Amino acid sequence: MTLAFDPDSLALDSCHLIGGGRVADAPGLSVIRPSDGRVAGEIPVAGADVVDRAVQAARAAQSGSGWGTCPPRDRTRALHRWADLIEAHAAELARLEAVVSTRPVDELPGGDIAVTAEQIRFFAELADKEGGLSVPTRETSLGLILDAPVGVVGAITPWNFPLSMAGWKMAPALAAGNAVVLKPSEMTPFATLRMAELSVEAGLPPGLVNVILGDGATTGAALVAHPDVAKVSFTGSTGAGAAIMGNVARSGVKPLTLELGGKSPQLVFADADLDLAADCIARSILFNAGQACVAGARVIVAQAVAEPLLERLIARMQPRAASPTWGPQPEYYPIISARQSARIDGIVQAARAAGAELLIGGAPQEGPGFFYAPTILAPGDATNPAVTEEIFGPVLTFETFADEQQALLLADHPTYGLCAGLYTRDLSRALRVVRRLQAGTVWVNRYGRSRDHILPTGGWKQSGLGHDLGREAYLACRRRKSVLIDLQE
After folding, report:
1. What is the pairing mode between strands 133-135 and 141-149?
2. Are residues 271 and 211 in the same domain?
3. In sequence order, what DSSP letters do the residues of 243-311 get, joined into one string?
4. Is residue 129 domain-shared with residue 84, that is, in the same domain?
5. Predicted pLDDT of residue 199
6. 357-360 and 375-378 as β-strands: parallel, antiparallel, unpaired?
7. Which of 76, 323, 372, 430 is a good FRET partner for 19, with 20 to 30 A between their CA atoms?
8. What is the mean pLDDT of residues 409-432?
9. Same domain for 190 and 307?
10. How far apart are CA 215 and CA 236, in angstroms?
11. Which residues are catalytic?
12. Which residues contact 34 (CB under 8 A, 6 or more apart)?
């Protein structure tokens, strides 16, 4: 059964969600459908006054409702109801996301939406299982470590996986007893807005979840700098993350969780299962047309198996038919915007001008919307733009190594350290290489995240700060207090 739909038939809400209700605002930005390049609707750009209204609504809801001090199991039950409603509204949410994003409507219910509901349930179950500690001190005293919610969490999510990224931010914050003000990407706001409305229908206190629409320069900047936002959580580019850090520093000090850019390597050793490796590599760069910070964009392969691996990759990365995200079972994903497509092509052409050999692809695909052909480049050296730049598109680089030491040198990127993959049948080599790879996540004989939400995700180097998912994400939304009590005789 397909959820295919007519994109012109959807009613797209352009209001903010503040205090549990819709708040109208003057339109200021056009939202473009990447599948055909047409305008889907208009959204407002929340200024500092609207941001302040949302933050104050969040503060009032968090303190006035007792959300942060109620029995933790009450939070658990409310969040489970929210997850249930998200699944019950999967078809509606899928259409709202697919119409303006790169995500195909038929993939969303069993993929992003199901994962989002799972994430909410995972963090809901931490609410009554993580807490303070009694710690060893001298016998005549009692040492305690108490924790409490931070207050209001300001969250900013990207356009590439709108719903699941919103789940990353909201679920741990809410489970830990906080309120949230979230700004979705101005390119993909509609499904996130509806998902937040469902939290009110699920019985979460009105105002605990607020969504403000707008861009980064105005709305995002006002949100992260607001003095009553106690913590900021952001997923996006390294450049934007650095700008947020600067903005926060100019307005005060507050904790940050930043999941940023990547240029992740995939190392293929001579003893690897080449069919497995080729399947994983091709899937990692073709999924969402490479528009994922974890995309395994750099293939680094042993010289002895370079040719047969390349043959397998070329066979798996042949051009695919461009079709809209609202159609049945599309073969390929669009690029989010004309600007991003031009950026991808600009880096590809700069790489070729710097000496990279084009092995397949290397150009935008014709037709309505924004699509780019699957591309493989042999860069020639590590200074080539195809190696150094995060392209955020369906572009692989293909390099070879003579030994393990050279493989590790090629894998070590000067800027990024988000993820890495390696393929080998040698367990000792796998463990040795895992320890030496400069990355926050390493996958062995696979590539890509699973539904094991207990595993935290975060980057090394300029790929991020702190962690999403796992217990770490929950604890990052709590603040701790040390207590020492002298016991009287």
Report:
1. antiparallel
2. no
3. HHHHHHHHH----EEEE-----EEEE-TTS-HHHHHHHHHHHHHGGGG-STT---EEEEEGGGHHHHHH
4. yes
5. 98
6. antiparallel
7. 76
8. 98
9. no
10. 13
11. 183, 259, 293, 390
12. 100, 101, 102, 325, 334, 335, 336, 337, 369, 370
Q: What is the CA radius of gyration of the chain?
A: 23
82 part of a folded domain: yes
Is 475 within the bounds of a domain? yes
E strand map for 368-417: 371-372, 375-378, 395-401, 416-417
When divided into structural domains, the chain yields a total of 2
User: Which helix (DSSP H) or strand (DSSP E) does residue 77 occupy?
Assistant: helix 72-88
Three-state SS for 296-354 is CCEEEEEHHHHHHHHHHHHHHCCCCCCCCCCCCCCCCCCCCCHHHHHHHHHHHHHHHHC
Residues 184 and 119 placed together within one structural domain of the fold? yes
Range of the domain at 319: 265-452
Q: Is residue 487 part of a domain?
A: no
pLDDT exceeds cutoff 80 at 242: yes
In a domain, 458, yes or no: no
Same domain, 173 and 34: yes
- State both tokens at 332: 């390929």
pLDDT bracket for residue 75 (50, 70, 90): very high
With CA atoms as reference, report the closest residue to 265 among 438, 137, 30, 432. 438
DSSP result, 141-189: EEEEEEEEE-SEEEEE--SSSHHHHHHHHHHHHHHTT-EEEEE--TTS-
Our CA dihedral for 132, 138, 141, 146, rounded to 10 degrees, sits at -10
- 339: domain CATH number? 3.40.309.10
- Pairwise CA distance, residues 174 & 167, whole Å: 10
**pTM to 2 decimals?**
0.96
% pLDDT > 90, the chain: 94
The tokens for 68 are 């942060």
Q: What is the four-CA torsion angle of 144, 150, 151, 157, rounded to 10 degrees?
A: -150
Residues 223 and 296 in one domain: no
**Residue 168 — pLDDT band, cuts 50, 70, 90?**
very high
How does DSSP classify residue 236? S
- What tens digit of pLDDT does each residue of 421-461 get? 999 999 999 999 999 999 999 999 999 999 999 999 999 99
How far apart are the C-alpha atoms of 253 and 246, rounded to whole Å?
10
Closest CA to 190 of 26, 32, 371: 32
Q: Which two tokens stand for residue 10?
A: 């959807």
Tokens matching residue 269: 């050793």
Query: For 172-184, b where at least 16 C-beta lie within 10 A, e where not — what string?
Result: bbbbbbbbbbbbb
Helices 190-201, 162-175: crossing angle, 10 deg rounding? 30
